[in-house]
Amino acid sequence: MNNNTLDRYKKAIRKKYEIEKEGEYFDYLYSPSRGKLRDFCWLIFENGVTQDDLNVFRNLFSIDFDYTKKKKFKDQKDKFRPIETFLKGETDPSNIDAINLAAIMVDFQPRPFKNFNKVCRMEDAIQVENSYSAKAVVEAEKKIRKRAAFAENEKSGEYSGKKRLFSNFATLFSKRGDQKSYPEKTIRFSSG
């Protein structure tokens, strides 16, 4: 588990909490207590949730959500302490299921953490790909500019004199160039 990504997840949940505590569920979230959070949790799950949310519930409370087990759920009040202190900004819980339940309670998306992590990895991959693409574009633009400058200079004659000089020099010292340049006399140079 990437701690950087988990920290981002926690910060995003806290940020969403700051918005939601002033909203529709003000009574439960504004000044959260274990009892209020427990009752709010039941309300959320009673109104229907995703399979991922049900898995978080099962992992945290070690029971499946069941409408008929409200009395047994009422005994789970202490499980909400880390969520209460997390939302209040007093602690930084390490229990991923408690963090995921906090995400459910403030309706943070994407959740649970595994989905948030997946989205972050995809975003990071896109950023890396875009940076490579941007570098490739910059390099291609540099090559185009160099070619354009070379072509412009070629037209103006700046490089043509140098090119002719090199060409003449190469012809002078090449075997084929010697024979073409001086067909009646073959001059050979050897170094040694």
Structure description:
The protein has 192 residues and is mainly alpha-helical. The chain has two domains: 3-113, no CATH class; 118-181. The chain is built from ten helices and no strands. It has helices at 3-20, 26-29, 34-46, 51-61, 70-74, 81-87, 96-105, 113-156, 160-173, 175-181. It is elongated, with a radius of gyration of 36 Å. The chain starts with a helix and ends in an 11-residue tail after the last helix. The mean pLDDT is 81.
Short description:
By secondary structure, the chain is mainly α. The chain is built from ten helices and no strands.
Question: What overall form do the CA principal axes indicate?
Answer: elongated
- The number of helical elements comes to 10
Radius of gyration: 36 Å
Q: Main β-sheet: number of strands, strand sense, barrel status?
A: none
Overview features:
192 residues, 2 domains, 10 helices, 69% helix, elongated
Fold blueprint:
Layout: H1 3-20, H2 26-29, H3 34-46, H4 51-61, H5 70-74, H6 81-87, H7 96-105, H8 113-156, H9 160-173, H10 175-181
